[in-house]
């Protein structure tokens, strides 16, 4: 097989109609010794070079002043793949790339890094967005494709949670592009690695099979391009891949999720041997979809990080109480974990679990307003002292009233000491008139109090505390929630053993677990 040649053809201005060919290298600049001499002030003396490598033709900027552009994107450091019909710009001089093999011009099919690639897309985010209304031939999109893209935009507005957003986007992509399966993998850092965040099945109903090709997704992400592989079974590098072989992938789309600010990850879609392979039009549609939804994914990630920071701040605030009340070491952490486990068992909604996650660490925040003589008293409280201690519920509620974003957790802080029979405090609410999340924290809080050592008593062993919960169903505790807590007793004990093993027995505030 003859070595593939490259041809560059000037397409405007002084270079229009000029042609340069080579088998190994073309260097562009103002120097007369270069292969492409460009007499233009926007071009540096040694501007850029295009070189043949074992992995195909690569372009590299040589530190030019005005930059080298590939398909409208300014090149950074390193080498970048060049393919048939790519547009290169050196300063203000523009050329089109033509590849020649066996004496004829090559088509769009690329063989890079031994990967059988039918087509790629290196569109900028803005160019890809232009594909929302028009296909790659600049024709208006069919109605069903346009509707799918508009529906994706609807999700960005109406879905707040990142996981829900990712799964909805993926399901739409699988349906719209008639894929047997799909996956979204996102980068944990700008350089990776990629982590699986969502899986979806279309034609495939075998979730045990691999959902995506890690190698393919990583290469697409690292190169910053969307890739169409029509015949993966012919790829010598992928034929032995477990994800390809066991996943019965015959045709694959790896589409870059990106915004103008950064690369986010990859949308991976595949079709099986019994389906027609993806086309270049499918690649163009998927690329437009990816550009359309990426801003929403980035926003959801920012919101998620903001929530994590907010929760961390709340946890530090809650720990300030424990620093004063030495008898309740790690009480907040344990109650949070018990409440989370109970909330999941009760099948709370995503929003309810989020409020529980925020509100539980703050359930005793009002103890900040309790004097040390009472808060740190080594013995039992007198009736008068206990009345003051009970005020931590209303004090906590008043503290949080000053923070509008925490209004949703006030019912937990105020009402976690209410009882099912109406004998609790501060309001004496009864039954389901006590907020649901407060009833969950009440169970978790009481169980930890029963199993924790205090100055005036030893903590109960778990089986004794579980028996007390059983006894107090329908009296102190919501009977449904108490029953749910008892149904996960084994997991609760495992959590207690895990903490005891991690922290050891430290005297007061230590939970009691049977040996």
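^ structure tokens above, recovered residues below v
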């Amino acid at each position: 097989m003859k070595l593939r040649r490259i041809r560059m053809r000037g397409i405007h201005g002084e270079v229009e109609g000029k042609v340069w060919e080579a088998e190994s290298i073309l260097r562009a600049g103002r120097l007369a010794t270069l292969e492409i001499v460009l007499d233009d002030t926007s071009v540096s003396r040694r501007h850029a070079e295009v070189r043949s490598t074992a992995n195909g033709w690569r372009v590299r900027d040589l530190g030019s002043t005005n930059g080298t552009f590939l398909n409208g994107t300014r090149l950074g450091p390193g080498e970048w793949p060049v393919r048939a019909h790519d547009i290169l710009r050196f300063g203000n001089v523009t050329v089109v790339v033509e590849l020649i093999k066996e004496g004829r011009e090559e088509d769009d099919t690329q063989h890079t890094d031994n990967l059988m690639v039918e087509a790629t897309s290196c569109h900028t985010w803005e160019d890809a967005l232009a594909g929302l209304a028009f296909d790659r031939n600049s024709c208006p999109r069919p109605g069903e494709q346009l509707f799918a893209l508009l529906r994706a935009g609807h999700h960005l507005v109406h879905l707040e949670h990142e996981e829900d957003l990712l799964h909805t986007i993926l399901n739409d992509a699988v349906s719209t592009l008639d894929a047997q399966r799909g996956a979204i993998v996102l980068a944990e850092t700008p350089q990776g690695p990629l982590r699986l965040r969502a899986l979806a099945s279309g034609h495939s109903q075998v979730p045990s099979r691999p959902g995506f090709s890690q190698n393919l997704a990583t290469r697409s992400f690292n190169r910053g391009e969307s890739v169409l592989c029509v015949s993966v079974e012919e790829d010598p590098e992928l034929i032995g891949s477990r994800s390809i072989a066991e996943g019965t992938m015959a045709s694959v789309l790896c589409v870059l999720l990106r915004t103008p600010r950064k690369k986010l990850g990859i949308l991976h879609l595949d079709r099986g041997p019994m389906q027609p392979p993806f086309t270049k039009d499918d690649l163009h549609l998927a690329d437009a979809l990816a550009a359309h939804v990426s801003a929403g994914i980035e926003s959801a990630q920012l919101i998620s990080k903001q929530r994590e920071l907010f929760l961390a701040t709340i946890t530090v605030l809650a720990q300030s109480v424990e620093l004063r009340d030495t008898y309740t070491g790690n009480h907040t952490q344990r109650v949070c974990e018990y409440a989370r486990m109970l909330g999941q068992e009760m099948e709370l909604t995503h929003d309810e679990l989020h409020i529980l996650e925020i509100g539980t660490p703050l359930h005793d925040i009002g103890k900040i307003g309790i004097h040390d003589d009472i808060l740190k008293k080594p013995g039992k409280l007198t009736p008068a002292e206990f009345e003051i201690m009970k005020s931590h519920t209303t004090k906590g509620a008043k503290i949080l009233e000053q923070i509008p974003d925490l209004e949703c957790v006030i019912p937990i802080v105020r009402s976690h000491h209410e009882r099912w029979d109406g004998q609790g405090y501060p309001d004496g609410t009864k039954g389901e008139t006590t907020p649901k999340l407060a009833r969950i924290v009440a169970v978790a809080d009481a169980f930890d109090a029963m199993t924790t050592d205090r100055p005036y008593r030893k903590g109960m062993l778990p089986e004794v505390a579980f028996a007390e919960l059983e006894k107090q169903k329908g009296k102190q505790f919501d009977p449904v929630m108490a029953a749910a807590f008892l149904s996960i007793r084994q997991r609760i004990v495992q959590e207690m053993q895990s903490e005891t093993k991690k922290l050891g027995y430290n005297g007061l505030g230590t939970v009691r677990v049977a040996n």
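The two ends are 75 Å apart (CA to CA).
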